[in-house]
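Local shape tokens:
==================
===
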Amino acid sequence: MGNIINYYASGNTAKGFYSLIESNLVNLNKLFILKGGPGTGKSTLMKKIAERWINEGHDIEYLHCPSDNDSIDGVINSTIKVGLVADGDPNVVEPIALGASIEYIKLGTELDLNKIESNVVDIVNINFKVRDCHKKAYANFENALKLHDEWEKVYIDNMNFERADSFTDEIIDLLLKDFVSDKKASVKDRFLGAATPEGPKDFIENLTSNISKRYFLKGRPGTGKSTILKKIAKAASDRGADVEVYHCGFDPDSLDMIILRELDVCIFDSTSPHEYFPTKDNDEIIDVYKELVVQGTDEKYKKKLDKIILRYKGYMTEANNFLKEAKELNDRFEAIYSDAMDFSKIDEIRNDLIMKISNLEE
């Protein structure tokens, strides 16, 4: 069996819906873009083709959907450099800068339009309510981010920034050692996790399962973890190393993880909501709080921090509740379209697509 990795290429964030999908499609030879509304079978079609690829021993990347835990937004066969992605609001694919040969696959022409027209009032109302739920979720995430900034400031005001620079250099040397390559680095931007209708989810264990050396960054908000990761990513790409850059699913301007597969090493922010601890012999903790923050800061500002954290968690809970409500509404939306679909036609489309991909492999 080939290698299977899972990640998100888009997210429900404090900056709204945020997509990084194009970054993961640039090195493909062929890209099939599936067009069609909710309930037209895009995710199921991609999963079935992915299962076929897995059985053939290919390396697969699943691009998961942050708004539906059971759906995917895309799948990439990195063995033959072929991808399939779903295109539609809000996950719009802009293929202009991509080097791949692109083919559009239209789903939804198999719809019974009479059934759609008889439900048009429900469709409009549900669509409006879904958008409203997402708008309210993003507003709560935005309020949570403002509180997170207050949370960070406590630690920023008690940071040793002079030591932070040299400490970061030490970590870069630790990861990269004397690596230098004259090739152009490949940099892929992704999310390791996301806010979903089932709460925060991440794929850290899957993404790092084949990495021999894993560094667990421990610290507090504002202690420079994201800045360290950004500097590592730049240093690695400057030296020609391929870099997988994993953004924060809450604040996409921040980073949560860097993977350097050709160096067999990764480093990630191992704090809530993706808190992990070493399980392998080579795993190692890097404690940023201990190294860079004035001793006793946690204790000195405990009352202030407790108030911030309580309000922050309240906004996060509200946001996730709205994502859950949006999913329940969207299920009703998809059910209307699914009921109007002739899925035997989808099977024909899938078989035709399989033939096209098989021809690419020859």
Notes: The chain has ten helices and 16 strands. The chain has a mean pLDDT of 94. The longest strand covers residues 30-35. The CA atoms of residues 238 and 258 lie 14 Å apart.
